[in-house]
Design a protein that fits this description.
Layout: E1 9-10, E2 48-49, E3 60-61, H1 105-115, H2 126-132, E4 135-136, H3 139-147, H4 154-159, H5 170-180, E5 188-194, E6 197-200, H6 212-230, E7 237-242, E8 263-264, E9 267-268, E10 274-275, H7 280-283, H8 286-291, H9 294-300, E11 307-313, E12 319-321, E13 340-341, E14 347-349, H10 351-362, E15 367-370, E16 383-388, H11 397-401, E17 407-411, E18 415-416, E19 430-432, H12 441-451, H13 453-470, H14 473-490, E20 504-505, H15 506-514
Parallel strand pairs: 8-10, 11-15, 11-16, 16-17, 17-19
Antiparallel strand pairs: 1-4, 2-3, 5-6, 5-7, 6-20, 9-18, 12-14, 13-14
Helix pairs in contact: 3-14, 6-15
Protein name: Glycosyl transferase CAP10 domain-containing protein
Biased composition (Gly residues): 65-81
Organism: Edaphochlamys debaryana
Length: 528
C-alpha cells in the first residue's frame, strides 16, 4: 500500500463548513454562521484538517493520504497510526486582521490584498465552492503523491495505443466533435485546457438532454477542480467527453489514422473509447461515503459472521451491446437465447432480469439477488458473497462493493472501466458468466469459495485494498492529470482558443449557464 501524507490547503477567508455552508449565491444557507474563521494550522496529523476550536475540541476529518488507504482518519479513527512529522504550515484567516482594521481603510485594504481575500487563490468563484468545496493540496505534495500510483496509469497507454503512431490530428478531433457532442445532437461536449485554465470550446446545447445535463456539468466541476489543483502543469489540450451509457467508438468501423478520440467512462476490447472515472464517483461522493466507512464496516461484520449466500440488489436495466463486439454478447441459463437485435448497431439483453428469474426459480435458498426490497449498501457487508452484474454497460456498483470486504463474484460482461486492469481474477474477485457461458457459473463460484474460505477472505481484502489505494478522489485526480498529459503529447496540432466563437471558461459557463439553466436544478454538489 502506498500512501502520501498531505497538507490540505483551504482558501483564505472561507468559513469552516460547520459554521457556514455557502449556497449558490455565496451566502450562508442551512447552518448558523458562528463568526469563527480558520485558525492557524499547526503540524497536522495525516488525514486531519485543522478546523476552528469548538466545544468538543475536534477538527475536521479529511483524507490526507494520496491513495485513500486511511480515509477513516479523524474523530472516529480507523486503526491508523500517526503520520510522519511535517513542517509547520500556517494558514492566515481574516479574523487575524480584525485588530488592525481600525488603523485605517488604506492600510486595511493593503493588508487584505497581501494576505488574501475571500476569493480563493486559485481564482475559483466563491459561488461555485458550494458545489465543489474549497480544499486542495500544495502542488509539490500532490505531484509527489501522483508519483506513487504508477500501476493506476498502466491502462492509459493501452487506451491511447490507437494514436501512438499517427497521433491525434485536428481532423480526428473534429470527427469526435461532430459525432459525439451536442453539436451533432449527441450527449457530449468539447472541453480544453489553455494555459492551465479549463474551457468549454463549443456551444453545449442542454435542452433535451434530461439527466445527462447533470453528468456534463459534473465533469465540468471536475475540470475546474483539476484547474485549481494543477494549474499550468496541465498542458494545452482539447478533448471530447461523452455521457452516453455504452461505448461509442467501434474500432473496426473507423477509418485508419482517423479514429476520433472520445473520453467516456467505459469501453470494451472492441472499442476505442478513452476511459475516465465515471461521474458517479463524484455525484455519490465516493471517498467519504464508501471509502471512509470501510474499516468500520469490516469490523462490524467479521468474515466468519457473514452469511454464506450470494447476495445482490439491482435495477432491471437492459444491456446494450454492439453486434460486432462479441466479448459482450450474452447467453442465458442452459445456453438459452436472451438477447434481441434491435437494429444494425444495437442488441439488447435483459441480463439482470434473466438472472433474477433464474435464481428465484432454481436456487432461492442460496442466491438472494432481486430488484427489491431495497437494502442499503452498508448492509451488503453482512454477506460473504456479493454478485456484481453490469447494467446497460459498465455499472458503477463494482467500485461500491469493493470497500465492503466481501468476496465479489464479478460478471465478465466484456465491458471495463479505467481501473479494471488493477483487478485480476482469483486475486481480487471470482469471474462468472463470460461470453458463451451462463448464470450457472455462480453456483460453481460459490462452491469454490466455500471450499477455500481463507483464500476467499484474502481476495475480498485485496479488492478492498485496491479501492482504498487507487480510487480515492485524490488518486483519481492523479489519473486525470496523467491522462491529460499523455493525451496532450499525442496531439498533432496546437490547441488554441483563437477562432472559436463559443469558447469560454468552464468557470464562467457554470456561473452563467449551469446555475441558471432550468433554475439550476441540474448542478449538484460533487465529492469534495
Amino acid at each position: 500500500m502506498r500512501s502520501c501524507p498531505g497538507t490540505l490547503v483551504v482558501s483564505p477567508g472561507l468559513r469552516h463548513p460547520e459554521a457556514c455552508e455557502p449556497g449558490p449565491s455565496g451566502r450562508c444557507h442551512g447552518k448558523k454562521q458562528t463568526g469563527r474563521s480558520w485558525e492557524p494550522a499547526a503540524a497536522l496529523s495525516d488525514g486531519e484538517l485543522q478546523g476552528p476550536a469548538t466545544s468538543r475540541g475536534k477538527g475536521v476529518p479529511t483524507l490526507g493520504d494520496c491513495g485513500g488507504r486511511h480515509a477513516g482518519a479523524g474523530p472516529r479513527g480507523t486503526g491508523r497510526g500517526p503520520g510522519p512529522p511535517r513542517p509547520l504550515r500556517l494558514q492566515l484567516s481574516h479574523s487575524a486582521l480584525r485588530p488592525l482594521l481600525p488603523l485605517g481603510p488604506l492600510l486595511s485594504a493593503l493588508l487584505l490584498l497581501l494576505l488574501g481575500t475571500t476569493r480563493p487563490a486559485a481564482g475559483i468563484a466563491p459561488e461555485l465552492l458550494y458545489f465543489m468545496g474549497n480544499v486542495t493540496y500544495p502542488l509539490n505534495e500532490q505531484l509527489s503523491c501522483c508519483d506513487t500510483l504508477g500501476p493506476l496509469y498502466d491502462g492509459i497507454s493501452n487506451d491511447l495505443r490507437h494514436w501512438a503512431e499517427t497521433g491525434i490530428s485536428r481532423e480526428a478531433l473534429d470527427l469526435a466533435v461532430a459525432r459525439y457532442t451536442t453539436v451533432g445532437a449527441q450527449k457530449g461536449m468539447t472541453l480544453a485546457f489553455y494555459g492551465g485554465v479549463a474551457h468549454v470550446v463549443d456551444e453545449v446545447i442542454l435542452d433535451g438532454l434530461g439527466h445527462h445535463i447533470n453528468i456534463l456539468l459534473t465533469y465540468m466541476l471536475v475540470m475546474l477542480d483539476l484547474q485549481r489543483q494543477y494549474g499550468k502543469q496541465i498542458p494545452d489540450c482539447e478533448f471530447v467527453i461523452a455521457s452516453s451509457d455504452r461505448p461509442l467508438v467501434l474500432t473496426a468501423a473507423q477509418e485508419a489514422g482517423k479514429i476520433p478520440p472520445l473520453m467516456r467512462f467505459c469501453s470494451s476490447d472492441y472499442h476505442a473509447d478513452i476511459q475516465i472515472p465515471i461521474f458517479h464517483f463524484y455525484t455519490k461522493k465516493y471517498t467519504p461515503r464508501y471509502l471512509t466507512p470501510a474499516k468500520n464496516l469490516s469490523d462490524a461484520y467479521p468474515w466468519a459472521s457473514r452469511k454464506p449466500i450470494v447476495f445482490g440488489r439491482f435495477s432491471k436495466y437492459y444491456r446494450h451491446i454492439h453486434p460486432l463486439a462479441p466479448s459482450t454478447l450474452k447467453r442465458g441459463a442452459r445456453n438459452s437465447t436472451i438477447c434481441k437485435q434491435e437494429s444494425a448497431f444495437t442488441v439488447t439483453c435483459p441480463v439482470r432480469a434473466h438472472f433474477m428469474e433464474w435464481a428465484a426459480r432454481k436456487h432461492p435458498n442460496v442466491i438472494d439477488v432481486r430488484s427489491g426490497p431495497r437494502v442499503s449498501l452498508s448492509k451488503h457487508a453482512a454477506y460473504k458473497y456479493l454478485l456484481h452484474l453490469d447494467g446497460q454497460a459498465t455499472s458503477s456498483r463494482l467500485e461500491q462493493l469493493m470497500p465492503l470486504r466481501s468476496l465479489i463474484l464479478k460478471e465478465e460482461s466484456g465491458y471495463h472501466s479505467f481501473y479494471y486492469h488493477l483487478l485480476r481474477p482469483y486475486e481480487h474477485y471470482v469471474p462468472v458468466w463470460p461470453a458463451g457461458s451462463g448464470p450457472e457459473d455462480v453456483l460453481s463460484a460459490m462452491a469454490w469459495a466455500q471450499e477455500h474460505d481463507e483464500e476467499a477472505e484474502r481476495m475480498a481484502a485485496a479488492a478492498q485494498e485496491v479501492a482504498l489505494t487507487y480510487l480515492s478522489k485524490r488518486a483519481r485526480s492523479c489519473y486525470w492529470f496523467r491522462l491529460l498529459k499523455e493525451y496532450a503529447a499525442l496531439q498533432r496540432f496546437k490547441p488554441s482558443p483563437s477562432g472559436k466563437p463559443h469558447v469560454r471558461t468552464v468557470e464562467d459557463y457554470l456561473l452563467q449557464v449551469g446555475r441558471r439553466h432550468d433554475r439550476g436544478k441540474h448542478l449538484h454538489k460533487i465529492e469534495n
